[in-house]
């Protein structure tokens, strides 16, 4: 086979791959969800800051990060995706509050009305790009406090959550300090906020919620479905081409040595010196 053609093909694949990576990497950087400089209530009182959110991310990373559940679908799947978990708990809290206590006991029509109200409420973008400020309604602050209490119990030492903690493979007192716990809850809030808040002037959120929660209006976009299918098809085509080329290529017969080269190995002084180590270890 002409090796020059193989090198040309390899160069094209590598060049095109890196061009795509650089282009979309730049797009991701430019369109990343904003981290607000401050999060305030409707009266303008500061609840927490962007620094608190970033500190909360550091807290999460310090206890294992993506080895302990996932964020935006990236990480280990022993524990849940914390953004999806936060959003679901926030949604259930609000639905139950609006339903007067028990959302599930409502009629189908009432459930549909409440779910639509929830979608409008959560998906509305209240971030001000000019002031870098995110404003939260009172009910959303209540939901945050509710979720924060749950995560404090989970990541600290509440005996009531021993079973859930065991299921998630999270040790007791994974986080020992309440101020650190509060910052991690603030990070969870921001990460989930980015999953449900629509971009300005668009009907899509800043990023995907995985697993997606249809109750809050999060469903896979058409682009996601198309590109996922396209990538799988291209992967299969690439594997097929490799198999085809390999099958067409004449392989030279591999010559086997007459004697086992390891049997002729000469023991060196450094190898002899390791005997003491193995004697002690064994």
The secondary-structure element order is HEEHEEHHEEHHHHHH
Any idea what the shape is? extended
The major β-sheet equals: 4 strands, mixed
User: How many beta strands in the DSSP annotation?
Assistant: 6
Estimate what percentage of residues fall within beta strands.
5-15%
> Residue-averaged pLDDT, rounded?
91
| Spatial separation of the terminal alpha carbons | 52 Å
Approximate helicity band: 55-70%
Structural class label: alpha+beta
How do the strands line up in the largest sheet? 2-1-6-5
- Please give the radius of gyration in angstroms: 27 Å
Unreliable segments (pLDDT under 50, ≥5 consecutive)?
A: none
């Amino acid at each position: 086979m002409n090796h020059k053609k193989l090198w040309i093909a390899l160069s094209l694949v590598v060049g095109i791959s890196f061009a795509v990576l650089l282009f979309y990497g730049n797009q991701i950087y430019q369109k990343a969800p904003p981290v607000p400089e401050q999060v305030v209530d409707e009266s303008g009182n500061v609840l927490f800051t962007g620094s608190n959110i970033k500190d909360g991310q550091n807290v999460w990373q310090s206890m294992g990060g993506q080895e302990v559940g996932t964020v935006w679908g990236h990480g280990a799947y022993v524990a849940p995706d914390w953004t999806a978990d936060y959003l679901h708990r926030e949604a259930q809290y609000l639905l139950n509050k609006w339903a007067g206590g028990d959302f599930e006991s409502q009629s189908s029509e009432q459930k549909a009305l409440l779910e639509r109200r929830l979608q409008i409420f959560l998906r509305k973008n209240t971030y001000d790009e000019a002031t870098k400020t995110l404003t939260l309604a009172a009910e959303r602050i209540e939901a945050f406090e509710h979720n924060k209490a749950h995560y404090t119990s989970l990541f600290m030492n509440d005996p009531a959550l021993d079973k859930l903690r065991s299921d998630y493979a999270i040790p007791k007192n994974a986080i020992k300090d309440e101020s650190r716990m509060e910052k991690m809850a603030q990070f969870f809030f921001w990460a989930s906020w980015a999953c449900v808040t629509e971009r300005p002037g668009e009907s899509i959120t800043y990023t995907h919620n995985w697993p997606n929660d249809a109750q809050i209006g999060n469903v896979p976009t058409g682009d996601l479905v198309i590109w996922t299918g396209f990538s799988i098809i291209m992967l299969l085509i690439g594997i097929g081409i490799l198999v085809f080329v390999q099958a067409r290529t004449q392989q030279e017969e591999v010559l086997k040595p007459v004697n086992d080269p390891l049997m002729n190995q000469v023991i060196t002084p450094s190898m002899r010196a390791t005997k003491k180590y193995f004697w002690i270890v064994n």
